[in-house]
Design goal:
This protein is mainly alpha-helical. It has helices at about 15-45, 50-55, 60-80, 90-95, 105-115, 130-135, 145-160; strands at about 95-100, 140-145. It has a two-stranded antiparallel ribbon with strand order 1-2. Helix 1 packs across helix 3 (about 60-80) and helix 3 (about 60-80) packs antiparallel against helix 5.
């Protein structure tokens, strides 16, 4: 059913893609700060003499970048996987991730898509067309309501004249 379906006319524009990125980036930063704040609080309660907050504040910049990138990729992957193609930014903008043939991504597709986000300058590649994380994983972002409406219409047309025989 999906293979001949074109997603091009439903692709999210660059403005929506940028807004998705900004919303997701800030939400991930907030979640990461909360996560490490809770961890620091628990460690401080367990061991009041701990200087974990000082250590978090003075973490090696490279280690900070690695941890932040890991959390960003992990949290975006989990949000897209659990919500079937939507992150917080995509919920707000009414978009979702699909394969370029219109089918739903698998767990592996979501994983590859989000793992590719660690490629340097990936965030800027959407300015040319699809970002590298889309090209490599063969995914794209579409306007959810219009895409699903056309998909339903195509499915209804395809089912005309077919009968369920039990």
């Amino acid at each position: 059913m999906y293979q001949d379906y074109k997603v091009g006319e439903h692709k999210a524009n660059k403005g929506l893609r940028f807004l998705n990125y900004i919303i997701d980036l800030f939400s991930i930063i907030i979640v990461t700060i909360l996560f490490f704040g809770i961890i620091a609080g628990i460690i401080t309660v367990i061991n009041p003499e701990s200087n974990i907050i000082y250590e978090f504040e003075n973490i090696n910049p490279l280690l900070d970048r690695i941890l932040t990138t890991f959390f960003y990729v992990l949290l975006i992957f989990l949000s897209e996987y659990v919500t079937k193609g939507r992150s917080l930014g995509k919920f707000i903008t009414g978009t979702k991730v699909v394969m370029i043939d219109g089918s739903a991504p698998t767990t592996k597709d979501y994983f590859y898509r989000n793992l590719c986000r660690i490629i340097p300058f990936d965030q800027l590649t959407f300015l040319g067309g699809n970002g590298w994380h889309d090209k490599i994983s063969k995914t794209t972002v579409v306007n959810k309501k219009a895409f699903e409406s056309d998909l339903l219409q195509a499915d209804n047309i395809e089912s005309i004249g077919k009968f369920d025989v039990e």
